[in-house]
């Protein structure tokens, strides 16, 4: 009797623990789902042969250009050169038979829960934000997202000047909206 209740308790706990046997909720695993959806679409657009080896090579190439949270995702699945583990086959094999991206992310979450903890940073609306009220850290992040740096910038006003100078190139809609104000 005790053994049966212990087994029942273990089964009930396994069903209740997060990440085991449950579907992803909205907003969960956002970096994984978003990155893999765009990657899957790029495979179709580039007419890549849908076999595991070709997909894995394309994934590694795509991860070389990944930045911030997407680079961290690539690190977790082993698609970067400095990764300690390699579970890229957990992505390439299911993609080769067109498995849904959210199901792939569910399986990845079971292997490494850090994958689904990744969240994109909140995007600043450059058309309405008062740059003077942002922290220097946030100003630097805007430039970093654009792939730019501000050499010689010592004060907040230097960063603001650089952002407003580059805004027409990287955020033309926001630049137009700011000139309309």
Overall description:
- By secondary structure, this protein is mainly α.
- The chain is built from ten helices and no strands.
- 19% of the residues are buried.
- The model is unreliable at 6-21 (pLDDT under 50).
Quick tags:
mainly alpha, elongated
The proportion of residues forming helix, as a percent range, comes to 55-70%
**How much strand content do the residues show?**
under 5%
Q: What is the rounded distance between the termini?
A: 75 Å
Largest sheet: none
Number of helices: 10
Low-confidence residue ranges: 6-21
Q: What is the CA-atom radius of gyration, in angstroms?
A: 22 Å
Mean pLDDT: 86
The shape, in one word, is: elongated
Taken in chain order, the helices and strands follow as HHHHHHHHHH
Count of DSSP strands: 0
Derived structural class: mainly alpha
Give a short overview.
With 181 residues, the protein is an all-alpha fold. The chain has helices spanning 2-16, 30-45, 52-64, 68-77, 89-96, 101-111, 114-117, 136-145, 156-170, 172-180. Helix 5 (89-96) runs antiparallel to helix 6 (101-111) and helix 9 packs across helix 10.
């Amino acid at each position: 009797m005790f053994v049966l209740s212990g087994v029942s308790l273990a089964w009930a706990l396994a069903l209740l623990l997060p990440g085991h046997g449950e579907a992803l909720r909205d907003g969960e695993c956002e970096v994984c789902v978003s990155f893999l959806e765009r990657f899957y679409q790029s495979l179709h657009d580039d007419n890549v042969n849908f076999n595991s080896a070709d997909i894995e090579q394309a994934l590694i190439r795509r991860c070389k250009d990944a930045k911030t949270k997407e680079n961290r995702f690539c690190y977790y699945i082993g698609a970067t050169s400095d990764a300690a583990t390699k579970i890229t086959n957990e992505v390439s094999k299911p993609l080769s038979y067109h498995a849904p991206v959210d199901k792939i992310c569910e399986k990845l979450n079971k292997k490494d829960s850090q994958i689904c903890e990744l969240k994109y940073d909140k995007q600043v609306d450059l058309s309405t934000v008062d740059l003077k009220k942002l922290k220097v850290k946030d100003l630097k992040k805007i430039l970093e997202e654009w792939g730019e740096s501000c050499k010689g910038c010592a004060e907040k006003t230097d960063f603001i000047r650089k952002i407003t100078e580059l805004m027409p190139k990287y955020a033309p809609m926001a630049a137009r909206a700011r000139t309309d104000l």
